[in-house]
User: Fold these one by one.
Assistant:
Number 1:
Amino acid sequence: MPRVLLVEDEEHLAAGIRFNLELDGYDVETIADGLRAVERLAPPPEVPTWDAGPAVDLVVLDVMLPGLDGFQIVERMRAAGNYTPVLMLTAKGLPEDVVQGLEAGADDYLPKPFDLPVLLARVRGLIRRRDWARAPAEGAALVRVGAAEVDFANFELRKEGETVRLTLLEAMLLKLLVERRARVVTKAEILEKVWNLNPDTETRAVDNFVMRLRRYLEEDARNPRLLLTVRGVGYRLVAE
Amino acid sequence: MPEVSQLSRSRRPKWHYVAVGVVLIVVAVALTVAWQILAAPESVPSRAVGPARAVAWFFGSLLFLLLIAGLVLIVILLLREVRLNERQSNFVSAVTHELKTPVASLKLYLDTLEYRDVTPDRRAEFYRTMRQDIERLNGTINNVLGAAMYTDRPVADPRPLDLARLARRTVELTVNRYQLPKEAIRYVGPASVRVAGDVRALETAVLNLLDNAVKYSREPVEIEIEVWGDADGQAHVRVRDHGIGMSRTHLPFIFTRFYRIGAEVRRSRTGTGLGLFIVRSIVKGHRGTITVDSPGPDRGSTFTITLPRLLGPEAEGDGASEAAHA
């Protein structure tokens, strides 16, 4: 049974979401405070992880929280090496807020008020997308991209003896590029498949993530030889 | 992390301009000092000092001083603007949150009732939740409307009313609203203290104070409301809680419109930053004053409203509006 951690301080919303997620067969744990959420999701190194609680498959995270806000929680989670998918819920629904949430490290974003079927679909979708990103690409457990080796099952990228932990979005973007190696992947397609956003959304998020991948993969991120920009269209990973 | 700096930059862009202004002031002061040292009539050999040089030095110094004064003025105005801007954007965040949260909850429960098989017990519980959400929504709407409606202008048609009775009624309303035990709010005071004013407005003011007292209390809630009249013609309502209190630095600002303690994104209490502003407007409209005191964080707060008291035969006439309202 997938385990969902719900971080929401509004009692009514927390109870309603919990009720529905449990009906859909999820094991739900709720936390109403930002600092406690960080203790649970990004425990300090001296705390054994099993003390923090059982592993979580998905975090549903509110932005406005007492103690610490949702953006900071995601940042601390990622900094502590926790790459559990995060679905952010917030009253702020402007496109720039959505982008801000995604750039802070969330994997999906849902403005309040939301439709119940949409929330449940997003939760299912995130767990499914994580499973897709984890599945072996090109039929192999390890995929080679230039000098790097990517282990999608563990969201790890190894290059010259160094290991980089990939976020869900980074892993999915790389996976999409690897699966379509040597062909152009359009920005609209990336937004739709990786970010689950409307393809028309105006955002620099894709460019920023491509830049991050280049920093992991390329010798010189400013003169890419592997992950190329196809001007006005999208991106292409060169054939090996 | 670049993402972090981007976030903070978009939230408070104008502070950079203030910093530029401060740097400019420092540069202007340094230039003035240099000008004073280099161009002062005493600093050059005596034969070169003519009246023209003295005049140039005088006007130059004056210009520098004007420049500095102008810069200081601009920075002060900018600072004010930035603060107001920040409070306003906090207000927009707070109202967005206060309006959207109950709407989101109502929608969630409606969707749940529509799409799920719900037992009658659960259904009753959901209806209760939805009713509370509507109350909250109504409260926020009243707050926003109240801020526009109650101004510092004197009340148009003041009627005699009983402040003690009004206070007891607000206690009842608050106890019901928050489902508190009866002993949570203790009323201390005489049977009647008469003032003149708008009963609805004054009730809103006292309700707002009690509302805050409950919101900022810890369990178990313990609040005293005291009403008394002075022989020198003043009536007082004092609301004291034993809650989270506040540090002295916040005291001068808490009646300012949109002012809330702490960053909005880390909100820990519901509210829009309008409640106390409304209280102050109403009290001012009744030619009264409001004061606040808190010994410090975690040591509770005390709010006192003082109004002109009705004495003599005028106080005997029972306000028709109050009777109708009660």
Note: Chain B has three domains: 2-88, 95-149, 159-325.
Number 2:
Amino acid sequence: MALSLSAQNIVKRYGGVLALSDGNLEVTAGEVVALIGANGSGKSTMSKVINGVVVLDGGQLLLDGKPIAFSSPQAAKKLGISTVFQELSLIPYMTVADNIWLTREPLSSGWRVNRKDVNAKTQELLSLFAGTYKTDLRPDVWVSELPADEKQIVEILKAVSVDPRILILDEATASLDSRQVQRLFDLIKTWKADGKAIIFVSHRMEEIFRIADRYSVLRNGKTVGAGDIKDVSDNDLVKLMVDKDSVFSYSRTGGKKEEKPVCLEVKDLKTKTLRGISFDVREGELVGVGGLQGQGQRDLLLSLYGDIVFSGKVNYNNKPIHFKHPRQAMKNGFALVPGDRAREGLLYIRSILENMQLPSWANYSFPLKMGKAGKDAAEMGAALNLKMASLSEPVSSLSGGNAQKVVIGKWLMRKPGLLLLDDPTKGVDVGTKAEFYSLLTKLCDEGKTILFYSSDDEELIGLCDRVLVLHDGGIKTELAGATLTRENLIAASLGVSEGGAN
Amino acid sequence: MMRFPALFAWILLAVALFVNFLLQPNLFASDTLNSNMRVFLPLILLTAGEAVVILAGGIDISVGAIVSIVNAILATRVGLSGSPEAMWQYVIVALLVGVLAGAFNGFFVAYLRLQPIITTYATSFLYAGLALFILPNPGGGIPSPIAELYRSTMPLKLPLAFFIIAILLGVWAYIRSTRYGNYLYAVGGKPQAAYETAVPVTLVQFSTYVISGLMAAFAGIAITMLSGSGNAEIGAAMTLTSITAVVIGGTALSGGVGGVAGPVVGAITLGFIQNIISFARIDTWWETLVKALIIVAALATPGIINLFRRRE
């Protein structure tokens, strides 16, 4: 009989919060099941129940029809369940090889780890993604030195190195570029053929339709639908997820805009990764920054924000600026929504109010007018449709999408003129994404200028007036209007110049 | 700096040795070297244990008090006129006491998940109190032949401490090459990731406190053999010095980076700094201040170098 795992009526509480009330999932050998749901719908909890990181409060897990129970990841691992964690389970100051084989290191005499063997076996695994690396990825480099996409690949290889029977991929494609995603999908097909059962958790609808055989949709901790992927359309799935119609109608309205004056001029900006880039942005424009991961997009936003050292000329509203500290940028009406909201964007254990007001406390005199601060934060929360129990709850109690709203909200409180967004919809559910899109459009219509980096090509195309495609530290091409197509964007991202004719 | 965390400790050691040599030209004569090294050895042993705890993301500030207990036990149970057999018996007892005290710390920190700094601060009073209970007033000691054995054993005309340090580093090199060695770095580097990878995090954390207790007992035995006498407060000042040595040795207080070799070098360096101060004929009341200034400067140097690098 083919292997099968079945999770039935799973219940999981964190303190008083019911994360899963009726979670169900079936997966059998040789198939890919997409586990879909808005952020906070219980997807992550579901995968953590299956891989033993959390203990379930109700329901049962059946492996090949037999009930199983485990209270630790060790036990799940023994049964052949392996996970690619969304937050990555890698130790920064350990080598790639040590990370992959941690707890399963091949030993030689005297219980010593056989480093030669470890490195050789790692090299073998690394070859699975050969040709998609941007650095010289060797088994003996520290994980902390790798760019995000290569960390993600190491995490994937680590999960696969167990030769699992059931593989859970939790947002495994979030930091990968299109080539790497393609390679992963090719590999998934061979793993399927080997008889592995795969649970694929993703926000990217297009990927789900490319790779999944079946789907299972979670909404507010309940499984609300499951079936064969070929029987549904993306709109059907989205409806199941968010209970809302037509979230994809985010294309900018209003057609041609009047030509506003240029407000941001960048000339020959250079950093460690940027090789001198120049561009102009007009007031009220929404300019996208695209390209593969790690081509200097992050450096571009951070240097404008005064967070990293750069050389070159920048004019803002016809005044030369060269910020050496984010404080100066903030004073001039800049705001940065950082790429890693957990590490750079939020104080997780502090309250929503504190997070929201963190850059703005100076406006509330001394002693602080807490009543006004609370009222303003509540207004911002309402404007962003922030779903929260109260302002005094810690940010850690929010789902990913709602946490991101807090990050955006805290900058909007300062009424910035220029917004720098570093992949703001990464790991955010479709419902919230749609809200973001209309928010960004509205902000631009109000005259705010936005520089928007995204790893999601669809949203760059659907949302932006223009897209600057970065490749290897330079602007490969600029796409706008009729040239702003998916094909051109991908071609330019990969450095193919013919595709992106200006 | 991250790749060779102990580099700075080695540079500092070279500088300290050089300055010391200028003040004390016979520094490298075997008797002088031996008299220095036997004084440094207790701190070296203590630092090695502390380094393991810190590497795995914890901290143990009860180690000095464990040194005191061991000293009190040996000084009262063996006595100045005791037999060598009694001494060796109580050495075993002392080691067991160290392991037990470490296990007590480990139980609270790893299994009850209490804050390491608070827990070991609290137990440090417990252990210091026990030491005073055993030996209320300074006195007692160990038989002088045994103290003499520690002072003047010089295999191959080299200080005994060299051989003990070599064994220490050899054991560490072995531990580092085992799976357990990897676990130390994993647990110290990112405990959540280690847990998700099925590393026995709790057990590893527990074990580091046991190791630290054991090493504190060794340090207590060494310092008792060095002084030959008993004093229930002998270890009190050693705790923070050992943590300083760990940091100078490039093992980050945040855990997961460094090792034991660097901290051992750091402990030797601190010893030579103390030596320099004695030989520089600094007035006694300035001693602490000068020593503290040197240590603060030593700790700050890597940070200052980084600051200039950022400025470019």
Note: Residues 40-269 of chain B form one domain.
